[in-house]
Design brief:
The protein folds into two domains: about 170 residues, no CATH class; about 40 residues. The chain is about 55% helix and about 5% strand. The protein contains eleven helices and two strands. It has a two-stranded antiparallel sheet with strand order 1-2. A hairpin with a 2-residue loop joins strand 1 and strand 2. The N and C termini lie far apart (about 85 Å). The C terminus is likely disordered. It is a multi-pass membrane protein. InterPro entries: Brnchd-chn_aa_trnsp_permease. This is AzlC family ABC transporter permease.
């Protein structure tokens, strides 16, 4: 578990560095990405918000996009409710560490102690590497000058794509993603930056297209076979002479003669 957590957190540190470098090279002060990583701590939402702001979008569109991307954390919170069943300070800290990777590692454990340990170890390591990476990227962004020259701008769409790809294995989310992308691409030439991202939500109903009515493809419920009566051994009738004791079974009396003249019994 620790080895896997280390690999994941190291990769996210590199992504955090690209976030800091892109923000600073685009003209943002170095403290902006650093404070944002400390306060928000959500890679996909930070990249989406930065993209809208740098593209000239308004603050409302940027905040709305970040909130929509982080809406999944509501479900995550219910999933790890037992892990965060702590005192208020620890619960607040654990809520801030809520991330896809931490929830995934916690969900892989069945023991409550290991489940909580996996969540806090992964979440804490992610928080440290993400913020250290952002700081290093922000400092390097000043020296780089243009993050596009090194291809660091490619990290942004790749991160967003990596967040979406696992869900595209299912038909419903794949239809919704394709429909949303089509809507966004269609309105890009006519609307300001940030608005096409919000209008992409119009593709969500496509996830329900072709889904049969409730119960049409429901999993059949196997009913248990009716119970069969098991024959019980019958008690022999009671002895009339002694009602409390059962009557001995009747054994026919066979008289064996010792007279040789009686012949063979066979």
């Amino acid at each position: 578990m620790l080895r896997n957590i280390g690999a994941v957190t190291a990769a996210m540190g590199v992504v955090g560095a690209s976030f800091g470098a892109i923000a600073v090279s685009a003209g943002q002060p170095a403290w902006v990405p650093v404070i944002m990583s400390l306060a928000v701590f959500a890679g996909g939402a930070q990249f989406a918000t930065l993209d809208i702001v740098l593209g000239g979008g308004g603050a409302v569109a940027a905040v709305a996009a970040g909130l929509l991307l982080n809406a999944r954390l509501l479900v995550y919170g219910l999933t790890v409710a037992d892990v965060l069943a702590l005192r208020r300070p620890a619960r607040l800290l654990g809520s801030h560490l809520l991330a896809d990777q931490a929830v995934a590692f916690a969900g892989a454990e069945r023991d409550p102690v290991r489940r909580r340990a996996a969540y806090f170890v992964c979440g804490g390591a992610l928080f440290v590497t993400w913020n250290v990476g952002t700081l290093l990227g922000a400092l390097a962004g000043r020296a780089v000058g243009d993050a596009h020259a090194l291809g660091l701008d490619a990290a942004e769409p790749m991160v967003l794509l990596a967040l979406v790809l696992p869900a595209l294995r299912e038909t419903g989310p794949r239809r919704a993603a394709l429909a949303g992308a089509a809507v966004a691409l269609a309105v890009v030439p006519f609307l300001p930056n940030g608005v096409p991202v919000l209008l992409a939500l119009l593709g969500l109903p496509a996830a329900l297209w072709g889904v049969p009515a409730a119960g049409r493809n429901a999993t059949p419920v196997r009913c248990a076979a009716p119970a069969r009566a098991v024959p019980q051994p019958q008690r022999p009738p009671e002895n009339p002479g002694n009602p409390g004791s059962p009557q001995a079974p009747h054994v026919p009396h066979v008289q064996i003669s010792t007279d040789p003249s009686a012949g063979d019994l066979s």
